Automatic annotation (TrEMBL):
Short name of one Pfam family: PHP
GO MF annotation list: 5'-3' DNA exonuclease activity; 5'-3' RNA exonuclease activity
Record's protein name: PHP domain protein
SUPFAM superfamilies: PHP domain-like
Lineage top rank: taxon: Bacteria
Positions of the Polymerase/histidinol phosphatase N-terminal domain: 5-70
Segments passing through the bilayer: none
Biological source species: Citrifermentans bremense
Record-linked InterPro entries: PHP_dom (IPR004013), PHP_domain (IPR052018), Pol/His_phosphatase_N (IPR003141), Pol/histidinol_Pase-like (IPR016195)
Length: 284
């Protein structure tokens, strides 16, 4: 996997199950040249990842995945690459966001406990889930508690039986605010797994065009949602419009069949994507 990269990884600081240092060690073992730690709505794990990367010879790109709302679309994901992750204004904004997210985690646990009580099972606590989270409490951390208690077989079972029925709506960044923040921090804005917005190409292209007018720089064309045909189409679309394109496994450590570096087995993202991201940052 020499000269290959994975530009979409999650750690315990959001909803992954491995620490930033563990992710870097895995990348080094796989022979990846570079990775991007792109936790959801937090940058708290980046310095740990960079330090580990320096030690192990893996280039680590600072990144973050913003959960945004755009028109009628909710939970659109924007990747901000090469941004200034130590910016005080950013850290204050994310602290407020994290506080609200942790309140959401507590509310989900409250609903799950109501269900557990009806089932005659002992309740769980926020502290148990928080102990598994390096940063913001996420639903996979709650799922791990349910697994440890023996209430569910695996992560999927936890989501089907408890986390989805007991969900509480997330808070989202307005898309213009997220794009402006990425630009202010000197970063490059890339739309993550575009086909999760819609599988219909014409509406998706309209969304991309609108976002490009607002400052979107690129598309994540290689991911675990796009088909090979979709990836080829989106890459061609990006290149024709002078946008950067990237790829990543979106590895959390909990999805069956998804591996760092290769995704579901066939993904191969070249280091040239990192070069293009750096050029786009310098142009900005």
């Amino acid at each position: 996997m020499r000269n290959m990269v994975d530009l979409h990884l999650h750690s315990t600081f959001s909803d992954g199950v491995r620490t930033p240092a563990e992710l870097v060690a895995m990348a080094a073992e796989l022979g990846l040249r570079a990775i991007a730690l792109a936790d959801h709505d937090t940058v708290d794990g980046i310095d740990e990842a960079i330090a580990a990367g320096t030690s192990l010879g893996v280039e680590v790109l600072p990144a973050m995945e913003f959960s945004v709302a755009f028109g009628s679309y909710r939970d659109v994901h924007l990747l901000g690459y090469l941004l200034n992750h130590r910016d005080p204004q950013l850290l204050a904004m994310l602290k407020d966001f994290r506080d609200k997210r942790e309140a959401r985690g507590d509310a989900i646990i409250g609903r799950i406990n109501e269900k557990l009580t009806l089932e005659g099972k002992a309740t769980i606590t926020s502290a148990e889930a928080a102990a598994l989270a390096g940063g913001a409490l996420g639903r996979p951390h709650i799922a791990q508690v349910l697994m440890a208690r023996g209430y569910v077989r695996d992560m999927q079972d936890a989501f089907v039986r408890y986390l989805l029925p007991c969900d509480v709506p997330k808070r989202y960044f307005p898309v213009d605010e997220a794009l402006a923040t990425i630009k202010r921090l000197g970063g490059v804005a890339v739309l993550a797994h575009p086909t999760t917005i819609t599988n219909e190409r014409e509406p998706l292209l309209r969304v991309i065009e609108e976002l490009a007018e607002m400052g979107l720089d690129g598309l994540e064309v290689f991911n675990n949602v796009c088909s090979e045909q979709d990836s080829a189409y989106l890459r061609n679309f990006a290149e024709k419009r002078g946008m950067v394109w990237t790829g990543g496994s979106d590895y959390h450590g909990i999805e069956e069949g998804i591996c760092m570096g290769t995704g579901r087995g066939s993904m191969a993202v070249p280091y040239s994507c990192v070069v293009d991201l750096k050029r786009a940052r310098n142009r900005g």
